[in-house]
Batch of 2 targets.
Target 1
Amino acid sequence: MTTTTTSAPTECGVPSCDNPAHPCAWGVCLEHRSEEVAAQRNLDFGRDYDDMIHEFRRAEADEARRLQQQAAERLKQRKREPWSDSSDRHGRAILRQIIQQFGEDVRSGRSRNEALVAASWAAGRLVAGHELGEADTRRDLLDAARAVDLPEHEARGVIRRRFVAAQKQPRVLEDRRAA
């Protein structure tokens, strides 16, 4: 049986013993030692969390860069530059047909929202194929939606969502492909 003798009190005032294996010989009582360990764990967790967030943000940036490079490569393969907000006559003629069809659909009894979904999808595919400028096309669709009294916030949401979905299936006009 080992006996321990108490020596000088620890920094927190609790007497310690002479046994080097006993925690009180470390100069801090068990209660304060556990607080130090917990603080160190929290500090380590904070560092790990910060590292994880930094790594996540770096991965996000790398992915965005990769997607931009892929888009640039696709454009190079097509050997033409994307259209700005000005569009060519053929693409504009098709947009006029899409908007005209939108009006006819609404007049024939189709719901305004459904008709706008179809028109936005068709126009969004042309924008994704760089046949039309995005800002001009959005503005023209929004004007058509206003003309049938569709609330602007609804129309903007429908157009935005359909344009995003249309990015997956761009439409390139036939006479452009041959060029």
Target 2
Amino acid sequence: MGHITGTGNPDKDLAAILAELQKPEDLILEGTFSLDGDIGVPSKRTVQITKGILIKGILDANGAMAKITGGGGVNQAANPPLPYPAFDVISSDTKPITIQDLIFEVPQAIAIRAQQIVDLTVTGCRIQGVKPVLLTDATGKFYSASGIVISLTSVPTQALISIRDNWMDIGDETSDSTLNIDRTLGIVVIQAAGTKSTEITFTGNHIKTVTGFGIDIRSLFGTARVTGNEIEMSHKGVPKPPFLPSGIRCQKSGTYTVSGNIIDCDYAAGIRLQGTDPTKPMAGALVDSNQVTVRNNELLNELCVGIELRQNCANNEVTRNTIYGLPYYALAVVKGGNFTPVANRFEVNKYGPPTAVVAHVFVDYDVQQTLITSWDPREGEAIWAGFGGFLVDHGTGTKVIGNYKVGPNPNPPSTA
């Protein structure tokens, strides 16, 4: 097993790491390594990992974790300019890749990115701030920073991804006041291509100070288990439509279990399932036993929801969650575009005081066959004794079991 000690000199440290990566053995890192090379040359600021390997940090003589400082940035030579990370994984090797017990200190754009993988684990790492970079998309210019990005442009075989027991504090800067709050993200997965199944496990991560998404999974072909994570959204938010900030968002496709997470947010949904595939709904998700707190916020509106099912969602179950704070709606199922949710279930969810500025449950126009219960018929007992909450129901075929009062909250709690 290779073992190198950082010098804090970017030229020496990057060269030493890249030289060790050419060898067949795993790699131990100790001390502080700098990736703060020439900002105009991406190859001087990123470590590319192209084979199966364990890269593990160990404590130095003073008990300090191994640290990677700087790295990453934006490639101005690309059109449009593209972000690149401090650590970049591009590998079709079937041998597992593990990145373990490292601190990433203020990289630019992205700390860790994987573009082609078979088996990836990131565990025990700390991401201490990510510096936003200026990017452009269809909505215009914006500043963005991310902790871990899995961008699956190629999935040659079944991909296994485990992101567990990491700590990251991304940041909520305003790099340019004319562009509003920076979009900062914790963990992002985008599966843009491939016909092979992907299996994702995100568990035990603590993500804080993000303005966009704590965990965001898009266009997944496969399954994802998002369990036991703690997400603290920033007090700031990104109000620019169609951007929908969320503690956890699952978008377009995939099969999801979202369970046992603790989410604290302001201008955001705690958990949002968003079906945007016109060919098939997002279906079969289980959102179970999560705790969501929506704090008071001056931007409070209908996007500030405890848990939301949006657009093309069908046959999903939201159960045994607890919603605290001052959400506009504690639970909501809403249409969007030409998509209408069908046959979703809100069962045995609880609301802690004070809660629901407008309603505990909101069912949008044209939404079909929603089941709402405040007790569990399988157990034959009331979860709540008495009043179940306020329900605003514009849907068709909604079935309510329990003591909900139809209509908005006549005496909403103060948001001042």
